[in-house]
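Q: How would the structure tokens look for this protein?
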Amino acid sequence: MKKLLRHKLKQRIFNLTLAVIGLAACLGCGDDEYEPPKEYRESYISCYMQITGLNLYPPKVQSMSGPLDFSWRFETEWDNILLYSLDGRYRELAERNGDTGYDRYVITDPALYTRIEVYDRNFESVEVFCRQWDWDEQHPVGSSLDDIATITLTGVSRYVYYDYDPEIEQYRKVRKRPSELTREDLSMIYDYSYSLYVERPAEKGVYMLELIFTDTEGETFSKKLLFNYKAESGTSGPGM
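A: Here is the predicted structure in token form.
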């Protein structure tokens, strides 16, 4: 009788062990069930957005303190220059930027992969001017607002220039005076909406700003913005 009980107990332990092993195997199969698709990439940047123009938007409603916060963004074509485009334009831009040594496999599943989209043009300079009316006593009409303005942008140039070093931040954010921006800052700019901060005018009234980008080929993209500044409330009305 005791032998029979011991045999049944061993059988149960054996069956339980098999069940545990089987469960672990199934769980393991579940983990390996989906292999996200990958493809070899020679370049880090996956898409170049073709610039067609520049947009500048009125400052946001804000308190009386701090500079006015304008938004800017480049206009782009819907038909962009994708990775391995048939016309060879992608390859030209990758070689211009030195983005030809990434040499790794990249997950291409849309749910897991974020495309690296930058503008197709690199820039030489950025300028900000007041037009039509004086900004204040120090900045009469037509003068540069460089000394009272800062601009933000994000680029991937440093990551590319440093051979994709994992210790280098991929998306490098900068906020500088326009004249302090370097060619590195103005290369491989990520497609996004950015800010232009300008110290407030001396008085309430209508003002005009002009933002100008000049690319490395000498072509300019500019936008003028007419807006109403309401000094007493610290807010700015819509662009005109």
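The chain has one domain: 38-239.

The radius of gyration is 28 Å.

Upvote if useful.
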